[in-house]
What we know:
This protein is mainly α. The protein contains three helices and no strands. Helix 1 (6-27) packs antiparallel against helix 2. The mean pLDDT is 91.
Amino acid sequence: MMDKNRVLDKALNFAVRVTNAHKYLVKSKNEHRISDQLYRSGTSIQANISEAQYAISHADFICKMQIALKEANETCHWIDVMFYSELIDK
């Protein structure tokens, strides 16, 4: 977790927080398919950034980072849905 890549570290920390939130929702019996979507997109960010570190070309690196950005945007969407549906609070 203490890599020298701050972006990768932050993405990993975020993935851990998303995983813990998903576990909480499942344990509290407040689990919905939305929390599964949050889990998938929220953990995918770090996976794509990690994959980009070993890209075979500059274009491949950009592509992986763009996928990570799209996953981050999707994660924000699911957090908004969960918040406004009162599944989570601040």
